[in-house]
Amino acid sequence: MSPARPREPRVVIIGAGVAGITALHVFREQGFTDVTVLEKGSDVGGVWHWNRYPGLTCDVPSQLYQFGFAPKPDWSHVWADGRQIQRYHRRVVDDLGLDRFIRTSTEVVAARWYEEDAAWELTTACDETLHADAVVFATGVLHHPSVPSIPGLEDFDGEVVHTARWPDGLATAGRRVAVLGTGSTGVQVVSALVRDAASVTHYVRSPQWILWAPMGVRQLVVVGSVLRRFPTAHRALYAALQWGSGILADITTRPSWRRRAVQAYARLSLRLQVRDPDLRAQLTPADEPLCKRQVVSGTYYRAIQQDHAELVTAPIAEVTPGGIRTADGVERPADVIVLATGFQAHNYMLPMEIVGRDGRTLDDEWRHGPRAYRMTAIPGFPNAFTVLGPNSPTGSISLQHTAELTARYIAHWLGLLRDGRISSVEVTEEATSDFNAEVADAMGPTVWNTGCNSWYFHSGGAIDLFPFDRARLAELLAEPDRSHFRVR
Ligand code: NAP
């Protein structure tokens, strides 16, 4: 391997969602010129590009769910719908001149590290080969749809659709729709479909707590105008909401009166909105509020109590050509089956074939579940980083904030590559194990660890979340500790 010399590093970012757009912006801002984003979808936006189901809304207030570097004061609603959020991502990319660095409809299927060249070779689905000095995986966590294996599903006569692959023009008005799954997605899609479907049957395996919030409330036009006119006020609001998300992180990670208050509010949301004791019993979860990713809705309980809506908690036995039969022998007809059954979370960049130093594969490295050092570096995979990777704060601290801190952390290493001070960097196994032990230890008092089964748990049984607060996040992603890395 030739000694390092100053040169512009070739950086490839995989994925153009929240994480990828953030990384691209941060790297460009820091003067890196040879940056390419490869995105398998036909547009930027990540989850907001892929998810187009009826009722899609972000349950994080839009004044918080935005990039710190691309403020948008004028949302139509306090909680904006998916289409508006997707348009925002597109506009950010256009306005910041990022589009020319992004190649859409380009799927990376393999990445291999060549130690002698200190470079990655990437292969796309079209068999194109690209080379990079550093690769940044910004592939997201909720990305690969999870399709349940239910007997008969393939022989259903009507349409079967996963919410994350909603086809344009799918007709549901006047038809009998069956919805499976009651996470954030299932609750949103049921609330929307019930408006014009002939019937909606909601199959619920494990009910979830649903916090009431006025999700449909509009943002006054004057609010947007004032915030646009006074950017300082907008920055202050953004900072206040960031601080608020820190409180949520605190509520989930440590038992406190605040946690108990939110849990009491979740129970009250159910009690006040569902008067029928039998239905309420069916809708009452066995676990504690907040244990799973909290579902928020202002409409679901009303929707499920409509005459043409039905809640079914009997287990599904099979799908028949004309509908769904439950274990109690009842068959309910359906024209469309909607799978709101979630994602194979924690795949991150898998099933890409990723081969690091000495032929180590990521499949093998992550056979007991995904793990990384400080959410971003993986031993055995030099010059490779994740943004919003394992143990990133999902559902508590702002994603955009985390992505930006992580991108700046990575940019530190890219700067050393550019200056010719290093040719490769790899986190040590020891530092990664220490970090993961610290994370596992801190999971103890979290609400996610109170006995529920959720997508927060990865295949190895550990909770793939961030059990610390915002201050610790900033500390972890401040200037890298060189002693935790092997640099060449
Ligand atoms: P999810 O939370 O993983 O929920 C999947 C649902 O499908 C669960 O109710 C699960 O039941 C059910 N399910 C899975 N397999 C099943 C089967 N074979 N038979 C019957 N039911 C089955 O997925 P999601 O609702 O798509 O949400 C995933 C995450 O996306 C959320 O937690 C959130 O982070 C994000 N999201 C956010 C928003 C937002 O507004 N910001 C909106 C949508 C999604 P069990 O619980 O019994 O397994």
UniProtKB/TrEMBL annotation:
InterPro entries the UniProt entry points to: FAD-bind_Monooxygenase_sf, FAD/NAD-bd_sf
GO molecular-function terms, A-Z: monooxygenase activity
Protein name per UniProt: Flavin-containing monooxygenase
Class in the EC hierarchy, top level: oxidoreductase
EC numbers for this chain: 1.14.13.-
Keywords from the named record: Monooxygenase, Oxidoreductase
